[in-house]
Specification:
475 residues, alpha/beta, Aminopeptidase, Alpha-Beta Plaits, six-stranded mixed beta sheet, four-stranded mixed beta sheet, 22% strand
């Protein structure tokens, strides 16, 4: 998962203001209990290679049961083929049968972290200079811990919501083609997670590059309203091969090189939906520079080629406007002194909401124009991305609470150009929104990279914000 586009920073940086400050110490008793849960979750290895989401889910279940949530409301799940990729669903009942449930979604698996590359042990929680360090401190164990802690507190406090609250913490979001718990629930336990709408990762704030607790500024909060769908395609060329002393023009490496050059030049058409049109219009007006004016013009007229050329110079904005495909891996040849017999390459595509894998594959095939190059999707039956509506009943409380917690900080709807498990919820008919509240720095805090971190103030402030948000939907 990738957080909010960096382009947002340039759009609203002139309006940067301080977030509402909260002291990091001493911790309130409820914050201390939350920190312990968060620490345990971060320090539980949930990598796809040698970790266990099942263990993490069981540990969370133990804490929730200790808080008074009965076994009948806790479902631990896994499948025999993937015993370590389990997850947990909790149902916290409401009093109203008329209100559809609210689903709290997060993933507990993490990107692989190699100890020798990190400054600190990635599976030990360190607190230094206003940040928590460790793999998953941000993506996505911060939100998973917040959801689990919230239900534990609700139980201890005997909170009686009108709307039923459901929580699904799953595995497999970070590994394409692996077992995915959110997808499995949507296909096999749809009623267990049935909800009127879901809150997920993908939104959030960004700073001007310095921790807010250390004098930095929060420049924006965003609400993720829709995302692209992720799909990899395997390109393959095969030749008879032969001795390298007798070269021929029909060479698998050359053919693949020509094919990838055409993929490089493949430009999908501009598209807008309600989310991106609102974002380009509002953010463009706030920016008030040549790029901003081009954003507004293009939102009003997608056929404006002059405006498109200006906007496309920004890689983030370019990606928000269309499906994109890019070569990411290549492998070929079998000997230094032989003509290649086989070359494969991976092309990674991020498909605009509503676009299918098959039509994207056909666009790649047409661009390459060579029947000797096969193009095959790595995952068959990939869910089509669907953008949820800009529903005032969902968006309104987010904006109202943002104004209270982060006065003067702009809050914008945006479409995520990366992917989350929200795509599976949307495919199942559950509108899913990436929430504001937590924030990162412009470098995205090392998410998917080295020395991942979460600002301490962001974690505790975001936790309070999200608690009030859930209460606003369920009271």
């Amino acid at each position: 998962m990738l957080k909010t586009a960096a382009a947002v920073i340039a759009i609203v940086s002139a309006q940067a203001v301080s977030a509402q400050a909260q002291p990091a110490a001493p911790l309130r008793p409820d914050q201390a209990a939350f920190r312990a849960l968060y620490k345990e979750l971060v320090e539980t290895n949930t990598e796809v290679t040698d970790g266990s989401c099942t263990q993490a889910a069981q540990q969370l279940a133990t804490r929730l049961r200790a808080a008074g949530i009965p076994d009948s409301q806790v479902t631990l799940f896994s499948v025999p083929e993937h015993p370590k990729d389990g997850g947990i669903v909790v149902v916290y009942p409401g009093s109203s049968a008329a209100l559809k449930p609210l689903l709290l979604l997060a993933h507990i698996d993490v990107v692989v972290a190699k100890r020798s590359d990190w400054t600190r042990d990635p599976f030990t929680l360190f607190e230094e200079n206003g940040y928590f360090y460790g793999r998953g401190t941000f993506d996505d164990k911060a939100q998973a811990a917040i959801w689990a802690d919230m239900l534990a507190r609700f139980s201890r406090e005997h909170y009686k919501p009108r709307r039923t609250i459901k929580m699904a913490l799953t595995c497999g979001e970070e590994t394409a083609g692996a077992f995915n718990g959110a997808q499995w629930l949507a296909k096999n336990r749809r009623q267990l997670i049935d909800a009127g709408f879901a809150l997920n990762e993908g939104g959030g704030g960004q700073t001007n590059g310095k921790a807010v607790a250390n004098g930095g500024k929060l420049v924006v909060q965003t609400i993720e309203v829709g995302e692209k769908a992720y799909q990899d395609f395997t390109l393959t060329v095969t030749n008879p091969g032969g001795h390298s002393s007798q070269p021929v023009r029909k060479n698998a490496i050359y053919e693949m090189g020509d094919a990838l050059a055409r993929v490089r030049d493949l430009e999908f058409p501009v598209e807008f939906n309600d989310t991106t049109r609102t974002f380009f219009t509002e953010a463009g007006k706030a920016r008030n520079d040549p790029v901003g004016r081009a954003m507004v013009a293009l939102a009003a007229n997608p056929a404006d080629k002059q405006a498109e050329a200006v906007v496309d110079a920004d890689k983030d904005l370019h990606s928000m406007l269309r499906t994109t495909c890019v070569a990411t891996m290549i492998d070929g040849g079998h000997a230094l002194n032989a003509l290649p017999q086989k070359v494969t390459a991976n092309v990674n595509c991020r498909m605009f909401p509503g676009r299918t894998s098959e039509e994207t594959r056909q666009a790649i095939v047409a661009a390459i124009g060579n029947p000797d190059v096969s193009v095959v999707p790595r995952v068959v039956g990939k869910a089509i991305a669907k953008a949820p509506p800009l529903d005032p009943a969902v968006i309104g409380p987010m904006k109202q609470l943002s104004a209270r917690y982060f006065p003067g900080v702009p809050i914008l709807p945006t479409m995520l150009t990366a992917a989350t498990d929200g795509v599976y919820m949307e495919a199942a008919g559950i509108p899913t929104y990436g929430v504001p509240g937590l924030w990162s720095d412009p470098d995205l805090n090392g998410i998917h990279g080295l020395n991942e971190r979460m600002e301490v103030l962001s974690l505790y402030t975001g936790r309070d914000y999200l608690t009030d948000l859930v209460k606003a939907y369920t009271k």
